[in-house]
Each structure stands twice: as structure tokens, then as C-alpha cells.
Amino acid sequence: MGTTTWLGYESLYVARQLNYVNADSIHLVELPSATSVSHAFQTGNLEAAALTLDEVLGLLQSNVKLKIVLILDTSNGADALLGQSDMKSLAELKGRHIGYENTAVGALLLHAALVKAGLEPSDVTLEPIPYSQHREHFVTRAVDAVVTFEPIRTQLLSEGAVSLFDSSQVPGRIVDVLVVSEAAAEKYAPEIKHLIEAHFKALSFFHQNPEEAARLMVPHLNINTDEILNSFKGLQLTDLSQNKAQLLPRPPPLQTTASNLAQLMLDNQLLQRRPILDNAFTGEFLPEE
Predict the structure, then answer these.
(1) Mind listing the pLDDT tens digit for each residue in 155-180?
(2) Domains in the chain, start-ordered, CATH in brackets?
(3) pTM as predicted
(4) Which one, of 158, 138, 274, 288, lies nearest residue 223 by Cα?
């Protein structure tokens, strides 16, 4: 199973550290970007992946056979457009260089920010930059602003960056999910259930022991415990009851969310055609309680 570095995926790594996950059957792999995770899943090098819903829509558009089996979180401020310390408003983006990861999340957040600023894409210079290089490009002023997410958001804010726009201003648009291939869903059902149970067990540990959980995340996120706990304020972690409400009904409410997001992506040329969503959502692997 593959992920990139993101607060909402930390439950999986905490679960591994606390031995909630059977390391013989579940192999967690961290990749440098969401794009690389998506590509590895599409090519069959990963049988499960943590991705944003828009990235999953891109896979479905390419006829990748998959199942969304879990909602991990919804970003509510943890993704942001940050400007250099001398920038005070979105309007100041005009004529500036903006770095962003060339994914739908980056493009959607950037588009919303430009609309709010009354700017067109032609008013700025866009610089595609892998997530792992966001901090370096920003600190060296290779870009004037950057669309990024935690933990780099917190790192840059602590170093003087200014938040110009964030995901709390586009609520419900950035959703992280766990997907498995259709083949894996059939072949590894017990392992998938085990992974999801471990995730919820780790979430429970986090809620009951937030500082201890944050300490476990420090080496992975490279920010301190206070910064980690503060960063989670920009994230809505999806609990079991919310997962059941979104995935168990037929049709699942998450499918409606995905359909609306697909239309938004089509309108902004982030998809070429509407993906087929039927049968892509299942709550069959969720724990009973």
C-alpha cells in the first residue's frame, strides 16, 4: 500500500509503529508525491493507495478498476496557498510566480484562489514543482507563492510565510480516501479489513493520547509535536459512523460528492471525460463497530 506524506495518512504509520498492523501482510510504502502514488497504483505496482478523491476520479477516467473502501479525512485549512512575507493579499499575486504540484488538488485550490482574487491564469506564471521541493523553492524565493499542504504548510508559516487562501474556503472539496484494486478487493478481503480496523484503532489512540501520538509522528512529518497538533485543526478526520453514512447507503452519498467534483473538474479541464462512478464505492470492509 502506498501513500505520500500527509497528516491524514499518519494513522496508518502510527498503526504500524504500535504494531496494530500485521507487517507480514500489509506493506506500507511512502512515495515522494501524490502523482507517483497514483501512477504506481495505475500500473499495478501498488494494490492499495491513499489518494485524494480528485486523483481517484482521474484513475476512473482512465478505466482503472478500483474500489473506494474508506474515507480518511477532509481538508479544512491544511491545504493552502502561501505567499512570501511581503505579500498581504491575493491581488498581489498578479505578475508573480506561483509554485504548485501538478495535481488536481493543486489546480483546484489555485483556481479557487485566482477566482477570489479576480485574476486569470494568464495573470500569473505557474511553476509545476513536486511537493518534496516546495519548501526549497519557496525559501530560496524561486517562487513568490506556493500551493502546498501539511506538514510543509506549517514549516513555511513558522518561517514567515503568509497564508493567502486555504481549503477551509472551499469546504468538502479535498477528500482523502483509501482505494484498492478490484483484484485486491477480491483476493485480500481479510487484509483490507485488518488495515481499516488498524486505522480506526490508531485514530482512537490519537484522540485518547494526542501528545503521544504526535511524538510518534515527529520523525515522519519533521515538525514538532505542538505544530503537529495545531496542524490537525485544519483537518476533519472521518470516523467510523461518518464512513458508514457515506459508503453504506445505495447510492452512497460520497458518490454524489464525487459526481459534483467531477463536474467541477470537467469545467476546469482537469478531466477529459466524465468517469463512471457506479460500483466504485463500498462499505463492505468497514468494521461493524
Answers:
(1) 999 999 999 999 999 888 899 999 99
(2) 2-74+173-267 (3.40.190.10), 79-169 (3.40.190.10)
(3) 0.88
(4) 158
